[in-house]
């Protein structure tokens, strides 16, 4: 289905939980579990119904996120059920990797082939600091297990933060040089939080790219038929096994090719990551709405999808999203 700006909307990101086993400073800095109860988030049956309706409107790709999706019980069975939806051709997952080593085989058997792993430092101490005590070794073991089981592609997501991990840019580029990973650098975005990571910590991907090009040659990859496949600009490292990606929502707007909707764990359908307003699907689902009503709500989200977000890294007043990242699913 086309939105009002003639963009084809074919991708739905689904947050299956707002709970997480890490407390990253830019995402979920609050110590403790989600304050919401079990009934505050959508059941797997409700999520399944939304996805079925979305597929009828032209959604072909679904990515499961959190919070941390691997902490939700019954996830593998849910993934298997998604494989039964006709015309849903791509099911992927984003994880922080802490539980991946123990669950990789289970989710692989359930139908996940493509996986994104969030990793912001290769230094044990810094990783523990930004994640609120996370174990770097567990993530690296999870990555190794994903490689062994044949997940492909394996994408490593790195949020570049000035003064924190900008001295590790070449270390992460080295991962893509030595192994068949796509290492993606993501610009820090302004979300509400407790101020532990501020907009002043923003680092433009132009700077990241220049650092990498100073060591490696980069050649941009133009893939046929992938005009609407995602926001990353992808480069091949000369002589390397993998790729480098740059996701630059502030320095280089990619809104004109945005192809996605987002379903939060509490049932809010968002047409833009950086807009707080959304459509409450949970209320409609729980009062027994018809398939036709549900479809109309999805259509409305597509129609009202804005042309672009309204944030900027360059001085002045920055409009922040009204939710924290863990509430949205990234």
Q: Could you name the key traits of this structure?
A:
twelve-stranded mixed β-sheet, globular
Query: Pairing-aware structural class of the strands and helices?
Result: alpha/beta
What percent strand? 15-25%
What is the number of helical segments per DSSP (H or I, 4+ residues)?
Answer: 10
pLDDT averaged residue by residue: 88
- Summarize the helix and strand pattern as letters: EHEHEHEHHEHEHEEEEEEHHH
Sheet with the most strands? 12 strands, mixed
Strand order of the largest sheet: 7-8-9-6-5-4-3-2-1-10-11-12
Rg over CA atoms, rounded to whole Å, is 19 Å
How far is it from the N-terminal to the C-terminal residue, by CA? 22 Å
Any low-confidence stretches, pLDDT <50, length ≥5?
192-197, 315-321
Protein topology:
Blueprint: E1 11-15, H1 44-56, E2 61-65, H2 75-82, E3 90-95, H3 100-110, E4 114-118, H4 124-131, H5 136-149, E5 154-160, H6 169-178, E6 182-187, H7 205-215, E7 218-220, E8 233-237, E9 243-247, E10 260-263, E11 268-270, E12 279-280, H8 281-286, H9 291-303, H10 325-328
Parallel strand pairs: 1-2, 1-10, 2-3, 3-4, 4-5, 5-6, 6-9
Antiparallel strand pairs: 7-8, 8-9, 10-11, 11-12
